[in-house]
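Input chain follows. Return structure tokens only.
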Amino acid sequence: MNPTFRVSVLSLALVTAGLSAQTAAPSQQRPARTVESVRPLAKVQQDAARLDTALQRGLQKRGEQALPVVDDATFVRRAYLGVIGRIPTLAETETFLADQGADKRATLLDRLLDSPGRTSHFANFWFDLMRLKSRQQNLSGEPFAHWLRQAIQQDRPYDDVVRDLLTASGPAHEQGNGATGMLLRDPNMPHDAMANALRLFLGTRMECAQCHNHPFDHWTQKDFYGMAAFFGGLRYRDENALPNLVGLRSELAAVDDRVRQQALQLVRRMNQGLDGKGTGVEKLPADYKYDDGKPGNPVLAETIFGADTKLKYTDAKKKEGQRQTARERMRAREQAPEVDSRAAVADWMTSPKNPMFAKVMANRMWARTFGAGLVEPIDDWKKDTEAVHPELLEQIEKLMLDVDFDLRQFERVLVHTQLFQRAVPETDTPAGQPVTFRGPMLRRMTAEQMWDSLLTLVFADVDDRLRPLDERAKPVYDQYAEVKAADAKELLAMVQERRGAGAPMRMQEQKRQEEARAAMQKDKDLQQRAQPLVRELVQARRAGNQARVAELAQQLEQMGLPLGQRAARGREGDLVRASDLAQPAPPNHLLRQFGQSDRETVDAMSSVATVPQVLTLLNGFLDQRVLEGQSALRAALETAADGARRVRIAFLSTLNREPSEAETQEWRKAIAIHGEAVIKDLVWVLCNSNEFRFVR
């Protein structure tokens, strides 16, 4: 058997989670304009050639040579996984391999960039960066997810997106205010929000300077508070969001405690938002111990590099005849006047003259496309940081400015380079040595690529199932609009009505959560005991030893792991692309098993193969959804003319290449001995091979 079919022992549970939904036409997430309508291909190819030339000079200086260009089968799989986040279907693979056009690779890349799958795949990238969660305490993350999807679909320039994220204000759950989601990801922690923004957008890690002078860089604690001052006065509730609820306090006094609590909880949830344009002032902490300031002293906003910002600090003046409430008088005493410091820091950060903004994102996009950055780590640049190819870094920074921060056009240039078509290195880069990019890096699929690729085997067109951009957010918008339009009495009536209707739903949700927790615990308890049997079963199935497979399957069933039975039954509506599911997926979902981020920290996703990761596939998805269910792959296998065609379909659908002559003979022989059922074993082996799980 081909050595690329070596498999790892994977984990047990597949709990398909999320909300059931209607499918949508593929146009729902299709980019609003074509890439060619913005920039001609000839110009893109010229830009790509300049990057290849700069890379070639860098390799020559190191005495290295670029790797050869890959064949069509490797390229088509890489292109689909890289641009739209899934493997190509059987039809897409065969169409490309049969195409004799000289420009078919360039044509394919632009077609993929114009497809709805690109919106879905790029959304996963942003969700990970923003640590997006569908639900966090009283805040829904769905408006933020909708806002990001829409920004991607409309090709909003990166600098505009970042500016909106830093200056967003208003009710979080109101339609159009999704940009508030980034700062609300760290509620009541403006210092953390600023530190995360510096790390994400400027590649500068100052969080260590929040409590003391940075031990490994030149930033001081006062530098940190100078930057934090730009978010001075930021408030994490929009207290003007629901002006209609006059008299609510007196109405609440007349209802029982449970209704009162539910009403207050609903109001608190709907009041989530951002307010305050920024005072540009922050106080040093009470334990400040350095000579350049005293504890509690005010610090004015000051940028850490590049151009200075000029804020107009003025005393608060009460307009003649203007009346103030007690709350407003208290706020005026506690807070400095607003000077639009949030807008000032956004303008400074996103300026083309900022020495870090364009190059950090250009390097991040390079790492996303080719597996590593020209500068590593991608979010920890220091004064002595050097790129592995300095000229190339300058070129991609210039390219980011030339395309006016259009990330789809920037990605377009990267995938049109010769580097994108070159073979991956056969050996890993030695520890401590920089990646030199003789070719792209060999990488395991991300969790999202794995999930979306498996769905490609189930559905003839998985992208046809992409939801409307706002489908998950629309119920949130509707609830906010309903509460905003209600008076105090109507709000209480709404709560009481939903309380009665929602009890069965709450019980069902509680039961679902309990079952999920029980399944997770069962998974943990059984993994260690099952591992030896699973390893042996993998070998037996690869070898076509059906008797031993049956014997081991019986032993696993006696342990409580019946093959072909999902750990939890997902609904058809849950089988949508990763970007359309709840963010992140539940802990025992296939996505999380394969390393999807828990969204607690930036860049927390993992593509490391783990020992407890093929029962997830063996014990559910492959058997039930692909091999036994009404899947696209099963339909193709059942309608194949003969055994040879079935073997070809298995390889072309999963690995997107033709089987070798030796592979064809080996599997045809197994079919002749054991019957057509062996074709299921072939699919299982291919899907659990390194060749399937890695992006080559």
